[in-house]
Fold this sequence. Notes:
With about 650 residues, this protein is of the alpha/beta class. It folds into 2 domains: about 40-425, ANL, N-terminal domain (Rossmann fold), CATH 3.40.50.12780; about 530-660, 2-Layer Sandwich (GMP Synthetase, Chain A, domain 3). Helices cover about 30% and strands about 20% of the residues. The strands form 9 sheets. Strands 5-4-17-16-18-19-20 form a 7-stranded mixed beta sheet. The protein has a 5-stranded parallel beta sheet with strand order 7-6-8-11-12, with helices on both faces. The longest helix is centred in the first third of the chain and has 17 residues, at about 120-135. The two termini are about 35 Å apart. The model is unreliable at about 1-20 (pLDDT under 50).
Amino acid sequence: MSSSQESSGSVTTIDALLQETRTFPPSAAFAAQANVRDASIYQVAHDDPEGFWASAANRLDWFQRWERVLEWDAPWAKWFVGGKLNASYNCVDRHIKTARRNKAAIIWEGEPGDTRVLTYRDLYREVNRFAAVLLDLGVRKGDRVAFYMPMIPELAIGLLACARIGAPHTVIFGGFSAESLRDRINDSQAKLCVTADGGWRRGGVVPLKDTTDAAVAQTPSIEHVLVIQRVGSDVRQVQMQEGRDVWYHEALGRITQKYVEPEQLDSEHPLYIMYTSGTTGKPKGQLHTTGGYLVGTSLTHEWIFDLKEDDVYWCTADIGWVTGHSYIVYGPLANGASVVMYEGAPDFPDKDRFWDLVEKYGITILYTAPTSIRTFMRWGDQYPAMHDLSSLRLMGTVGEPINPEAWIWYHNNIGHGNCPIVDTWWQTETGEIMITPLPGIIATKPGSATRPFPGIEADILDEAGNSVPNNVGGNLVIKRPWPAMSRTIWGDPDRYVATYWSKYPGVYLTGDGARRDDDGYFWLLGRVDDVVNVSGHRLGTMEVESALVSHPAVAEAAVIGASDPITGQAIVAFVTPRSGQQPNDALTAELKEHVVQSIGALARPKRIYYTAELPKTRSAKIMRRLLRDIAEGRVLGDTTTLLDPNVVAQIKEQYAASEG
């Protein structure tokens, strides 16, 4: 067992991860064709970061070149000062001047199986039409526009239309409640809300317009609600309030303007506000601006995913989260990529839907979440085995640390041992990927995000601000500004400083724990506040979860700390067994001992509960907060973002029965 850090606030390291020594270097064939083949780029970026990012900015089209690369008065950053550009122009207009005009930009599949393919020429036409509708509804440069939408092409089109006229957008995930939608609209003071009559999810209709109506009844800044017809009146009727609500297709019929001149915007002009998931109380809106964000997302997308002109790229996230903004819309489209969008659930009509899409569209790059991968593991190897996945040449993970067992399953069963895996760490606040392999030059290790991207200076600090030794956990920080960084919390700069920049002045505090191994690779340990304090010893929940999932009977696990009169907190685990495994007392005892052998006696779970599903959002994140609410007998927080709210009720009933 590794020694604990009782007073420093650090989290103990995990022996199970320290024992993960397998490495997977890029194949000679992949390395030979990689976009980045020379490891000296790390040193180049370290020695001259501003020169490095200036070179990256040359990939974009600028109306006016910048005067200074960076203006830094910690924690306030301005990138490419004096430069003028437009994100919509860079994602659309410049491509139609080349052979890309007839290349697929968005390849979309709805859950019922309906499809659309928009070339870059099509996308250009639709973005201009949408921008004309926005102008007709009175939206102008600087006005905020809220989106509450299903995953349909009009969502991406609408964002680019907003960017075209300089109207910052805020996308509220389509699973949020009316109250959450209301609070985010009110915080951003949005002038227009764009929604749909509904969206498809597991064969049913999500009533987006109804939720929007309930929200905007309490949002005085909203002047119009623009409604896109997705499911159609033959499926369900929606109420349209005269004078406020406008059908998008009817608005299109009224406009004659076919081209909207893209605004020449300052590099620091606000592009969007993204509210961080899981916020309580006042929403925390991260403000991202135009120039630096587009530089960061486009460069990271091309280098990390080794993007080629003929790739078919699929990021399975929802555009309602930052992953969808950066790596479905802005990064890929700025690079002229062919982007797959899918509306529905991964298990509808059956559990092979993702693999069916990979085969159907010849997808070459797949970017998905570790939680989804563990779910696929639990469903069984037979589902991917039903499909030809040989088109895949690179795969990625995003959202949370991936445990080695899930990494290996992904490598073997989806990539068939032939695809590099880029395990990426970043945040809503960072805007771009920060720690990741460059697949042509970095040997990967299952479970490690490997090294910071060139130009990113990451470190791991103790409570006093000192770099910790190798193989010791601490606070992950970023010590130098980067282009896509959030500029502030919308309307609350003091909160921005207090949350991210006060613990270590001039240094960005990520809120995540990490350790660095002897090769300089970073291993993410989850949120620093996701720790269990057992008899004064702080154990990361991700450590215990990884140990549990390393057992062959376990598909997924979530660990929380519950109040204990003797030890202060006790470890409580919620475990989803793999297909064919039957929960019983013998398995419980075996799993407890397995954790002891992996970490030490302090990490032994006091209780283990078995559940067919864990409570997850539709972006595949496990909601440990709800599990803590159950364990502590608190009133449950908002469950409207959950993939299946019934899961929480079932776990609560099981927990109450065992405690009784």
